[in-house]
């Protein structure tokens, strides 16, 4: 029996949007994964999420993936009371599922700073990374950095081209704060949740 292949998509998801969902679906398909876990952070190590509760970020993520059979929510980072570091998340998975291959999916921004993550060297040894392009980063710069991580850390890290979807969580927050439409940027159920709970109506613009 072959080992299972599971994609991991960690994120603040503040809020989740179609860029996240499309990149996840592409990786799922291209790497023929068995499933893909969305792992919302509780307390992000590198981003402020003030005013928006982890419960709201979790609920929006849950709604966004509900219609996809091979996407699942994983609560591992949410259940931690302290900041979540990817090395701890991956180590927990490896301890529990020793025969599963894990693929951690990240965008360009994350990839360019990966060497600064906690226990980066060990992390890159025990986990395979898939880096998805973003239109705002020249792919040459990104590919060079990936090569640097391979050379320097012996990392198993691959670049994957997906459609450029220039939607970001900050763009959505800013648009809501300016009373602009976010239609078609995130699934309708997430949009409804945001408006029902008046999330990002004020103050979140600068985060
Ligand atoms: P996020 O903002 O919610 O985004 C999740 C991922 O989606 C990011 O890698 C992001 O790429 C990517 N993304 C967003 N919009 C995209 C688009 N339109 N096209 C392509 N990619 C897009 O999540 P985050 O707050 O950066 O966190 C990502 C994960 O990294 C989390 O699990 C977090 O715990 C982990 N992390 C760990 C450490 C550590 O252990 N020290 C440090 C930092 C992050 P970009 O990176 O390009 O925005």
Quick structural summary:
This protein has 207 residues and is of the alpha/beta class. It contains eight helices and six strands. The protein has one domain (4-167): HUPs (Rossmann fold).
Written overview of the protein:
This protein is an alpha/beta fold and 207 residues long. It has one domain (4-167): HUPs (Rossmann fold). Helices cover 39% and strands 15% of the residues. The chain has 8 helices and 6 strands, in the order E-H-E-H-E-H-E-H-H-E-H-E-H-H. The chain has a 6-stranded parallel beta sheet, sandwiched between helices. Helix 6 links the parallel strand 5 (128-132) and strand 6. Helix 3 (86-96) runs parallel beside helix 5 (120-126). The mean pLDDT is 93. Bound molecules: NADP nicotinamide-adenine-dinucleotide phosphate. The site of NADP nicotinamide-adenine-dinucleotide phosphate has 29 residues, from strand 1, helix 1, strand 4 and helix 4.
Topology summary:
Layout lengths: L4 E7 L6 H13 L4 E6 L13 H12 L5 E3 L12 H11 L4 E7 H5 L7 H7 L1 E5 L6 H15 L3 E4 L8 H9 L10 H9 L11
Parallel strand pairs: 1-2, 1-4, 2-3, 4-5, 5-6
Helix pairs in contact: 2-8, 3-5
The site of NADP nicotinamide-adenine-dinucleotide phosphate has 29 residues, from strand 1, helix 1, strand 4 and helix 4.
According to CATH, the fold-level topology is Rossmann fold
Number of domains: 1
List the strand order in the largest sheet: 3-2-1-4-5-6
Distance between the termini: 47 Å
The CATH architecture: 3-Layer(aba) Sandwich
Strand count, sense and barrel status of the largest sheet are: 6 strands, parallel
Number of helices: 8
Number of E-type strands: 6
Topology order in helix (H) and strand (E) letters:
EHEHEHEHHEHEHH
- Helix percentage: 25-40%
